[in-house]
Amino acid sequence: MHKKVIVFDFDGTLIDSNQLKHDAYFKLFPLDGFHKKIVTEVLNEYFEESRYVILSEIIKRLNSETINKDELSNSVQVLATKYNDVVVDGAKHCKEKPGAKEVLESLNKRYNLYLNSTTPEVFLKDIVKHRKWEDYFCDIFGYPNDKASVLFGIIERESISPDELLVVGDGKSDKDSANSVKCEFFQINKDSTLMALLD
Q1: 125 close to 142: Cβ distance less than 8 angstroms
Q2: Tens of pLDDT, residues 86-111
């Protein structure tokens, strides 16, 4: 069936920021072996989760049972602010994925486009605006929205069937959200680039 709506992930899909986001976590903690080990373990398990989930898990593992809920929440907020400062600036200026702007310009004329990311929504919109991409999208969704819930909402809003929706992303969370609503998924990786969407 002919597609009517395309939903894009952001980091690693439209901009080349996954390494930037990964490395930023290590800048928040001491560089000794213990801290590096914990941060690495958490990122291996949770990298596609929001920064709040990741930071919470890192802090809990670093402090074992010695941190209470309020202390944990406060620590997460402080570190998330520092993380956001590093990542948002980096995401504004890092390279776009090959062909990103060209693909958005072209597809925007034929489909309704949306953005669906785990980046906090307020920062996501700021980054997109800085790149002058905001006019390509009907709407932009970030954390704390759940990716699958966003897709269900778009299907309802656009009055389309899942067959008329395409999700474009580079991660497991993108594929899982597409599977949840039973729509097609286009995987971005080194063998399958955005430019293939124009074929």
Answers
A1: yes
A2: 999 999 999 999 999 999 999 999 99
Q: Where are the domains of the chain?
A: 5-15+96-198, 18-93
- Give the pTM: 0.91
> Who contacts 10 (Cβ-Cβ below 8 Å, separation ≥6)?
17, 115, 117, 119, 124, 127, 128
Residue 174 in tokens: 């993108």
Residue 145 phi, psi dihedral angles, 5° rounding: -65, 145
Residue 30's CB: how many other CB atoms inside 10 A? Answer: 10
The distance in angstroms from the start CA to the end CA of the chain is 17
Strand order in the sheet with 5-8: 139-143, 112-120, 5-8, 165-169, 184-187
CATH number assigned to the domain covering 5-15+96-198:
3.40.50.1000
